[in-house]
Amino acid sequence: MTFNLEIDLAAREKAGLYRSRKTLETPQGPKVIVDGKPYLAFCSNDYLGLANHPEVSRSMSAATQDYGTGGGASHLVVGHSRAHHQLEEELAEFTGRERALLFSNGYMANLGVISALLGKEDAVFQDRLNHASLLDAGLLSGARFQRYLHNDVESLEKRLVKTEARRKLIVTDGVFSMDGDLAPVPELVETAKKHNAWLMVDDAHGFGCLGKNGGGVAEHFGLSQQQLPVLVGTLGKAFGTAGAFVAGSEALIETLIQFARTYIYTTSMPPAVAEATRTSLRLLQHENWRREKLAVLIQQFRQGCKQLGLQLVNSHSPIQPVIVGSAEAAVAMSEQLARDGILVTPIRPPTVPKGTSRLRITLSASHEEHQVQQLLEALDKSAYWSRKQPFQEEVS
Ligand SMILES: *Cc1c(COP(=O)(O)O)cnc(C)c1O
């Protein structure tokens, strides 16, 4: 017997779902070179333009003088450097939580947290559009796994009333990664309280963008540690560096240090990355103009789409998807945009549900208004395709 990998690969290709990588030859920013060609890009998660900020870069290179390059060991052995520790303290203060704990990335933070908190006698309740890392974490934990309808508190309650689990954990994206809409977090807080459950929010796309100081959904809705006990942020998006953190109570963080396997059994992030993040945290908090500029660009984009008759989703975040329908149409639109020098990657199943393939357009404070205008003009041209065949369902 062989594995017959070629058959599965061919099937994926036939379904229009084959993925391939492009090679980026520049730092992230509005203007990039990809596979040797220049583009105006609207698909990174560098929402505040910090991924190539000179001060952040300088902090990173200076820190390699102090700490070298590699973390060298796990946090519990001898890999927990002063840089990591200071960043954790600053993140705790930033989020208004007792403590914060660094992870190597968001995927591992989610796996670590959910499986440290839950076991077989517990239950996890997840929004059906949650990020893949949360869904995978729920499965890995061994807890009873239930999905509720997107942003539907009633659907969640129906499941909560029936459970007899020891611990109940409600888990949601803060800002949904592929749709850009906001979770009804205050309602979820109430629901959690009513059913004696805990709430966990993965705010990968809210930190930096939402809240007066970039504190994400927790700051936006003014939610305390008691109301929102498990708060996850990632550092590879608006922070412009790499890694992730969990913020919460002393007992939560100690539990993670003792039991989160993706924390314990891995090398710490390079200390220089932690130093760079301390600088980006400072910029993210204090440079309000980045959030203000982003808001102007989001408004400009949405108004432009309305004028063009392009269907928008309910998102006021920098994630502004244009839902195309079939995977083929999304790919065709993306290719048309590329011919006009605009880079937007199509997002297809299984990342999003069937029939909702989309262009996931993301805006950044580093974009300029004339660049958004250029995007709108190119979209108008390429949208011909989707207007002709609106919302084609994929039937498999
Ligand atoms: C990107 C993302 C992650 C993963 O974070 P990484 O640091 O890139 O591994 C987790 N959750 C959500 C909602 C995300 O968008």
Walk me through the structure.
By secondary structure, the protein is α/β, with parallel strands linked by helices. It folds into 2 domains: 21-48 and 288-388, Aspartate Aminotransferase, domain 1, CATH 3.90.1150.10; 54-286, Aspartate Aminotransferase, domain 2 (3-Layer(aba) Sandwich), CATH 3.40.640.10. Helices cover 44% and strands 16% of the residues. It is built from 16 helices and 13 strands. The strands form 3 sheets. Strands 3-9-8-7-6-4-5 form a 7-stranded mixed sheet, sandwiched between helices. The protein has a 3-stranded mixed sheet with strand order 1-2-11. A 3-stranded antiparallel sheet has the order 10-13-12, covered by helices on one side. Strand 7, helix 9 and strand 8 form a beta-alpha-beta unit.
Looking at CATH, the homologous superfamily of the largest domain is: Type I PLP-dependent aspartate aminotransferase-like (Major domain)
Radius of gyration: 21 Å
**Sheet with the most strands, sense and barrel status:** 7 strands, mixed
Strand content: 15-25%
Mean pLDDT equals: 95
Strand order in the sheet with the most strands: 3-9-8-7-6-4-5
> Which cofactor or ligand species appear?
pyridoxal-5'-phosphate
Tally of distinct domains:
2
